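Budget justification note: compute hours in this period were largely spent on complex prediction jobs such as the one shown. Inputs:
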Amino acid sequence: MKVTDHIKQAEGKSLFSFEIVPPVKGQNIQKLYDNIDPLMEFKPPFIDVTTSREQFVYIEKENGLLERKVTRMRPGTVGICASLKHKYDVDPVPHVLCGGFTREETEYVLVDLHYLGIDNIVALRGDAMKHESQFNPVKGGNNYAIELVQQIADLNTGKFLHETIETPYTPDFCIGVAGYPEKHFESPSLASDLKRLKDKVDAGADYVVTQMFFDNQKYFEFVEAAKAIGINVPIIPGIKPIAVERHLQILPKVFSLDLPLALEKAVLNCKGDKAAIRQVGVEWAIQQSKELIAAGVPTVHYYSMGKSDNVVKIAREVF
Ligand code: FAD
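Corresponding output:
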């Protein structure tokens, strides 16, 4: 079922959903299930599964020189989605990236997702590779998320890249895209970024999921500004509980966002006590979630990233 239909069916009640990251290569899926199992008590209608970009590894050759090879450290998004769908009877939402894929390779992924009965996709550009200073698509790949949205929207009408196929089995993917309450780091302004978001919606995106934020006011203002320029699809807020002290530096740097002073102070007051810091993150996210739900958001979407115990604590208080 489509994410947008889950939202409609909830008739104004805020849903609970979360995102998981595939484990690094060589792991067993059981660890992932062990993290997801306790979250199923809160009946998520859908679970997002991220996709990681490819990266370079350097293999030492016999002559001492290094050979550069491309690898993926966290493959398996499509397989994990299939396993979640059948194990939990939930709607998995794979993240599909422009970066690292030609449009043909993307088409094959979309065909696989369709065969698996997966109804939703979050369409993303992806970031630059680790050694790159800016995002570069592979030759023949999509440059921006909007092009990927267009590719999926085309497929929804039977239009494949090199042929149109008329069949009763045409896909009907529900398409999510990313939105940034504190603007995407490359964008010259929030207004420009919002215009790009509107373009993605006009190209066929059915809903928006936001980057994490720690000050709800930023989300509320973003939603107002989006509505003012005619973005009328659901905008799902993304919430991440702070879990370790170094998040104070990492999150602003990686996600280009501000942390409220009160949150920073609360974390620093823990004086390195790891359990106390995790608890601060939980309490902050509980307050954020309660306020968002009171404002009638469609879903509160948690970035669980690994251990889910903190999201369980939040959900217990909120859902
Ligand atoms: P776009 O919408 O293409 O925008 C990228 C930038 O280009 C923005 O600054 C935008 O304003 C600008 N822009 C857009 N169109 C144009 C145009 N035509 N001309 C000029 N400028 C333009 N990354 C992963 O690697 N894997 C994931 O699974 C993943 N999941 C995510 C989930 C969410 C909810 C969010 C918010 C982000 C996620 N990301 C993920 C990170 C995302 O890939 C990066 O933030 C990336 O830098 C931008 O992706 P986008 O889809 O927003 O790009």
